[in-house]
Amino acid sequence: MTAGTPHQALYRRWRAQTFSEIVGQEAVVATLRNAVATGQVSHAILFTGPRGTGKTSLARILAKALNCTNPGPNADPCDACPSCVSIREGTTLDVLEIDAASNRGIDAVRDLRERIPYPPGELRRKVYILDEAHQITKDAWNALLKSLEEPPDFVSFMFASTHPQGFPPAILSRLQRFDVRRLTVPEITGKLERILAADGREADPEAVAVVARLAAGGMRDAESILDQLLSSTAGRIEADAVRDLLGLADADLVGGFTDALAAGDAATGVGLLDRLEERGRDLRVFLDQVVDSLRERLLADLASRGAADPGIAAAARRLAGIDPTRLGPGGLRLQLELALLEPSLAYATTPAPVAAPARPAPAPVTPEPHREPQREPARPVSPYEFGRPAPSDEPAPSDGGGQLPAREPIRAEAPPDAPVETPATTPMAPPADPVAPVAPVDPPGAAPLPDLVEPVPVAPLGPVGAADAAGGDDLERLRHGWTSVVTTITERNRAVKPLITACRPIGVEGNVVTLGFPEEQGFLKDVAERRRPLLEECIGEYLGHEVAVRCVATNLDLLPPLPADADAAHILAEAHRIFAEDLAEVPEVT
Ligand SMILES: [Zn+2]
User: Fold this and answer.
1) pLDDT of residue 559
2) Which residue has the higher pLDDT, 494 or 389?
């Protein structure tokens, strides 16, 4: 932009105008290009994905591609012909963009039906882009349904939504769906660097990295933060300036606190909290930074060794229980202090007995019993973007909760003989102890400080799946030797490591070995099933006979721990639950 033009937000100025300008989303773009080239673009399309990842940009580019009079190679719109320009400038009446969340949008959707039958005035095809489409009212959907069932040839509907689960099923089934994913830090960094270069500005690479990480996968947020930095800083953008602007703690403070957590060094940790508060840093933001740092260390461990450092993993688990929205005496400061103190409260460090599977429950963290394997809420948008309230279009579990779902109440005791394959329907807390909380979710602030409560022993299930005697022996052998089986498998294929670390042998019946995966991570099980030959080969070699492997999703908390590093296994399962999204993005696995 030249001087004198009114300031236009960076993300508008840098909005992708062609398929080739889209960052990431290779699969979606390839499919769209192909559909345009072969004339097979559906009349009703849904772009779904987190906020700020380019859904409406894709819809506009597709609208251009459908109307471009001079398309480039690979079905890319030219962005220069009158059709492309009128769509880019928003001057054509044939492309109508409606924000379904606004009042005007609701009226516009209602009025749409009358307009649909009329052919386009200027372009080849009329395109209705409905943003925030999950907000469309029931009446408006009913009005649209007929048009979606029998659309005129010259009309395209493009819906964009962060919440496709809010669509009526009858609508959803008629849409061709494209899942737009969060962008990676390098993808965001790359674009931010291009913007800086084009503006002739310089930035400390660490500053750019901090912005990219804060944006939590949303390019629009990253661009907005950069925009703010560019206008508030005259010279080179330094990492400290970014931290100041965003109220972030220094990296060494975060690292020091993480170390203190892992080591149970409460005195150091409390001192760091004092320093933070003296500098007026927001503890909620700090909590997110610490969680971020713990997660990085866990993932680095998983990638390099296939196992998590138990101290780090236990620290992550303790932070997972923190409710950052709690105010008053039991507020965030106290919860952080308790997280520092807890290793010395002994519950987490009780060594597992070597052979006997019965032991105290490692921690009162319970996987959500009915949670669908769902990637989207696993990594909500960073809650501390520019002091804006938690975005309403993102299912953030709690403001400032970051990646960590609110901790749930303690399960009083495991059903002693719950069938392993039906954990979702198994009552989580039998009414044996009327004092124990049984509701699956507590309102924020009402959850007990769970780690102060006495751990309740979990009754072991014993061999699962009605194993016969021989099967029982095999199961015992497999459980005892599981670490070496895991090593063999990962030696043959490193990409399987996240999978195999998440699962456990839970039953042997004849030659059928059942592997259990955390039930809230159905996708791991699905991926594992595609890798079954390797698993069967390695497990078979270990047991000395051929086996078939069956993968089930189950509640691993209800199972006896593995004899070897039982607590680590639980912690790891927990880490996988918390950090599911990152693991899902390990590219070799899928
Ligand atoms: Zn064009």
Assistant:
1) 61
2) 494
In a domain, 363, yes or no: no
pLDDT in tens, 214-264: 887 889 889 988 988 888 888 899 988 888 777 788 888 899 999 999 888
Spatial CB neighbours of 342, under 8 Å, sequence gap ≥ 6: 264, 318, 348, 451
User: Quick check: 216 and 384 in contact, CB under 8 A?
Assistant: no
Residue 25 CA to ligand 1 centre (angstroms): 22
Distance 87 CA to ligand 1 centre (A): 9
Question: For 237, phi and psi rounded to 5 degrees?
Answer: -90, 120
**Centroid of chain to Cα 430:** 31
- Is the domain of 192 the same as that of 228? yes
Whole-number Å distance, alpha carbon 34 to ligand 1 midpoint, is 17
Predicted model pTM: 0.54
Domain count for the chain: 4
pLDDT at 383: 34
Cα 551 from Cα 528, distance rounded (Å): 7
**Does 191 reside within a domain?**
yes
Q: Which residues of 295-320 are buried (b: 16+ CB within 10 A; e: fewer)?
A: bebbbebbeeebbbbbbbbbbbbbbb
> Which residue range forms the structural domain that includes residue 303?
251-357+370-407+430-458
